[in-house]
Amino acid sequence: MDSTPSLPAPQLFSLSGQNVLITGATRGIGAACAIALAQAGASICLVQRNPAEGVPPNLETLNSIRAFGASAEVVFCDLDDLEAVKHVFQKALDVMNGQIHVLVNCAGIQRRSPSVDFSEGDWDDVLNVNLKSVWLLSQAAGRHMVPLRRGKIINFCSLLTFQGGITVPAYAAAKGALGQLTKALSNEWSQHNVQVNGICPGYIATEMNEKLLSDPARLRQISERIPAGRWGEPKDFAGPLVFLASSASQYVCGELLVVDGGWMGR
């Protein structure tokens, strides 16, 4: 592994000249992270779902990035289409001048149901999007980054990487496995100067958690257990992600960084 550059502290966090491929950036945490990476100097390639026939694509994040003069491109891929996922990294390389320095796996889906009723279809959907697509993208990134001896891969895990949750068996299984995958890839690729780490969000006020936010009893139970006294916001991930994407984290390998207002410390 290369040593941490001897630079003034602010420059360690610069992403100038870096190309970032990020999934799940049309809204919520992913959108905030893509904008933060661009503000730190990176050029961004967004992976977005194929728009439905007759429906224009959601280009809000793309336009937000371009509005302040940063470079951004989009490649379209449905992450539940695993054959398409196998080709999306090359599509990104094609629009990013053959270079991807950072991969951020932020996309994810949720299905809630009592385990006795949880359908096989929901199980497969969650595992394919939240785990297998991440594996395929990470493997493609490794094949690109390892020979070049440089790169960062950042996976968005969860509190359910450590805990079981309630009525979310597939999500818990996928995020638990994703934590182990993050460590496994780090064990292999750190020696090649490719750092693989994860970010584990706590309870964040996003669309994915609408059912919890609209349930007064669960909202109260969860909120009372967060030492910070509030649910997180997408912008709470801008700093942690830029840190893990930058040279400031050169010696951080296989880490699962919890960003949860103190929930796990409780």
From TrEMBL:
Work out whether the entry's keyword set contains Kinase: no
Q: Which Pfam families match?
A: adh_short_C2
Q: Which positions fall inside the Ketoreductase domain?
A: 18-192
TM region(s), chain numbering: none
Q: Which UniProt keywords apply?
A: NADP, Oxidoreductase
Q: Which domain of life is it from?
A: Eukaryota
Q: Which SUPFAM superfamilies match?
A: NAD(P)-binding Rossmann-fold domains
Q: Does the keyword Transmembrane apply?
A: no
The record's GO molecular-function terms, alphabetically, read:
oxidoreductase activity, acting on the CH-OH group of donors, NAD or NADP as acceptor
* Similarity comment: family membership: Belongs to the short-chain dehydrogenases/reductases (SDR) family.
What's the protein name? Answer: Ketoreductase domain-containing protein
